[in-house]
Amino acid sequence: YEPWEVGTRPGARMYPQPHQETTSRPPMARTSPVSMEVRDGVALISMSNPPVNALAIPVLEGIEAQVKAAQADSGVRAIVITGSRGKFSGGFDITQLKARTEGKPVRNMSDFNGVLNSIVEAGPKPTVAAIENLALGGGLEVAMACNARVATPKAQLGLPELQLGVIPGFGGTQRLPRLVGLPKALDMMLKSKPIKAEEALELGLVDAIVPADRLIAEATKLAKDIADKKVPRRMASLDSAKLPADETVVKKIFGAARRQAKRVKHLMPHPWLCLDAVETGVVKGSVAGLASEQDAFAKAVSSAACKGLVHFFFASRSTAGVPGVTDVGLKPRVTKCVAVVGGGLMGSGIATACALSGVRVLLKEINQKFLDAGMARVRANLASNVKKGRMTSQKADAIYSLCTPCLTYDKFKEADMVIEAVIENLDLKQKIFADLERSCRSDCILSTNTSTIDITKVASKMRNPERILGAHFFSPAHVMQLFEIIRTDATPPQVLVDALGLSKQIKKTPVVVGNCTGFAVNRVFFPYTMSACLLVDLGLDPYAIDNAIRAFGMPMGPFRLGDLVGHDVGVHVGQNFIDDFPLRVYESGLIPGLMKSGRMGEKSGKGFYAYDAKRKATPDPEGIAALLNASRAAASDRFKRSTSGELLAMTADDIAEMIFFPVVNEACRCLAEGVVVRASDLDVASILGMGFPPFRGGVVHWADQVGAGRIAARLRQWCTAYGGIYQPCPYLEDCAVQGRSLADGPLRGPDRSKL
Questions:
Q1: Is 77 helix (H, G, I), strand (E, B) or coil?
Q2: In this structure, are strands 403-406 and 360-364 parallel, antiparallel, or unpaired?
Q3: Which residues share a beta bridge with 446?
Q4: Residue 107 and residue 57: Cα distance in Å, rounded?
């Protein structure tokens, strides 16, 4: 289909038809993504900008031109606006938003609001939106400006702009509350929560639901009925019937919403700005509200949060591209069956993730007791989805039936990929892969879920060690989005392409990583807890540290996280870094002391925090006081000077910097070593794997906002006082001296600084 064709899908009828009465229109240039045909007095205006008909500048210009032409045409009685190829519109073209956050010149399209107000909503001829499958963001705003909306049964409608740090900018803050009511509108906008067609019909956001093959016909009929005054013409921006009439109710609704938004306003201003625009419209009317919306949008788009969220959006969509691998014509083979060795928490989570996406699973354990427990975990994972309303019990049963329990490797010839997920024991893993080599097809991909062990060591006893790669999931594997794919120097490109294909099948975000201790996430973040322990040994309160890190935007602080994971697991993983990077670690007696006293974290009912039967955490300063004193006493002679005065003066920002600057430093080492394909891959990995705040854009992006010079200078100061954990690496120093962005990557060749 060409952009000027109106047919929206195979089998759709083209307009005009030769035997029907039509009026000709001066066509727009054949390159326009918006077309118009007039049939029986109704202008059908269709957007065509694959894949989701994003509202790029030419699309907005095309809508304006075609609607103006239709409104001015004496042969047109009514207008239907739709999208081609089975979608209405996925929203504003985000590449324009990206350019704006990067300070590049872009056209200001705020005047498009005037188009929607004057000629779409209030023009002389009525407009109807014909919505197939998707009307999100600016797409829904265009639809809401129309006088009526008809949707297909599978349509999704929403305003998810706040996910990108901005607010609706084409009148959405004014029309949505007037169409669905104020509480529901705030819920949809503040939570970026789309709704399905059926709910939209109940709320009044759409006027009818019709089959896809009847969409244009029914929208055309409705448009004619409005033109003939058989159906009232509604202008959403002027309709206040669904807004609360009682001022007290309005204040109560906004008061509750603002209490939530106020807590994050200093970090993420856009929820507060969105409320400003909505409240202005409710209190002062939509004209004032639209002006407030434009002002609030301009403030939001210039915020650091918007810049970070937009960066993360694009970074997360680029991780699957690997130069020399995904750009040489290789196609991923479809993975129909995955075998998982080990049915513990991780193995059962991986099995669940695969089955949820329709991939058959073979789950193997060493005995019936462990196998039953593993399968029970899969069933419990699915039951949780049923309880949360995400699926029916019948669907859960169907998904569970994709999992086959195994005590032997007899069925493994069926597997396209094997994922080993047993405990971190090198000898055991080596034995398993020797068995797998004998039991699986030669084209079956063999992978290990290890989070710490060198992949080549795992493969050292295989006949064909190049067959193995790392497939590192994060727990719980059926929930966490990140999938680290670890390649060695011998990994065949086709194997890597197939692993990337699996990530797409099971809806994970892949990051391809070189083989090194800790890979990407664990490697970059190993100084995180170590630096926190150093601060405690210096005399800082661990709960103050956790509070500072949560204020920075992390879901929890390092000590609460240690309790959640289990301190025995943390010590086991940490030992790898102590062994491999002895000159840049900090060994504290704090957590080993905690373990000796039986405080293992949540699983033992106490760690740094105490836990009740519902696992609610409560600080337990008295319970850990003796442990803190012992660790501090043991560490007292390791520091070159007293820091008590500095500690008393430390702000939450100071604490966050002292914990995250060494994390940035390790990220720089990974960039210098070529551990990841691009710097933004570390941003994605840090957000999806460790919970780094998305509004900060990822660890490297955030570091570039702070500046390499400041980070390197602070690390040098701390290194002098506290040791090698803070020693800035050469790449960070290079960027500091040269004024370069960390995200640019290391210079190669003679121009590189010799620092």
A1: coil
A2: parallel
A3: 418, 468
A4: 8
Active site residues per annotation: 141, 161
236-261: b (≥16 Cβ within 10 Å) or e? bbeeeebbbeeeeebeebbeebbeeb
- Reference 668, options 745, 724, 725; nearest CA is 745
Task: Report DSSP letters for 613-648, one per residue.
Answer: TT--EEE-HHHHHHHHHHHHHHHGGGSSS--HHHHH
End-to-end alpha carbon distance in the chain: 57
Q: How far is it, in rounded angstroms, from Cα 603 to Cα 601? A: 6
Please state, in angstroms and rounded to a whole number, the distance separating the CA atoms of residues 649 and 540.
11
**At residue 121, does pLDDT exceed 90?**
yes
Q: What angle do CA 456, 459, 465 make, to 5 degrees?
A: 95
Q: Strand, coil or helix: what is 363?
A: strand
pLDDT tens digits, one per residue of 138-196 = 999 999 999 999 999 999 999 999 999 999 999 999 999 999 999 999 999 999 999 99
Cβ distance 297 to 167 under 8 Å?
yes
Q: Quick one: which H or E segment has residue 469?
A: strand 468-473
pLDDT tens for residues 616-631?
Answer: 999 999 999 999 999 9
Q: What is the distance between the alpha carbons of residues 732 and 709, in angstroms, rounded to a whole number? A: 8
Tell me the residue type at 640: K
Segments in 191-344 forming alpha helices (H) = 197-203, 215-227, 247-262, 270-284, 286-301, 304-316
**Distance separating alpha carbons of residues 402 and 351, to the nearest angstrom:** 10
CB-based contact 701:308 (threshold 8 Å): yes
685, 521 contact by CB (below 8 A): yes
Residue written as tokens 């963001």?
137
Residue bearing tokens 């169907």: 398
3-state secondary structure of 110: coil
Q: Give the SS3 label for residue 130.
A: strand
* Residue range 396-442, pLDDT digits in tens: 999 999 999 999 999 999 999 999 999 999 999 999 999 999 999 99
| Per-residue tokens: 508 | 């994970």
Tell me what pLDDT residue 601 has. Answer: 95
Do the Cβ atoms of 410 and 392 come closer than 8 Å?
Answer: no
Give all strands (DSSP E) within 330-402, no chain letters. Answer: 337-341, 360-364
User: Could you identify the residue written with the tokens 């929403």?
Assistant: 158
As given in the structure block, the two tokens for residue 503 are: 């990530």
pTM: 0.91
CB-count exposure of residue 582 (10 Å: 0-12, 13-18, 19+) = exposed
**Residue 368: what residue type?**
Q
- Nearest of 19, 370, 80, 401 to residue 216 by alpha carbon: 80
Q: At a CB cut-off of 8 Å and minimum separation 6, what does 751 contact?
A: none
Does residue 608 contact residue 542 with C-beta atoms inside 8 Å?
yes
Going from the C-alpha of 334 to that of each of 36, 159, 235, 359, 506, the distances in angstroms are 41, 34, 49, 10, 11
Q: What is the DSSP letter of 440?
A: S
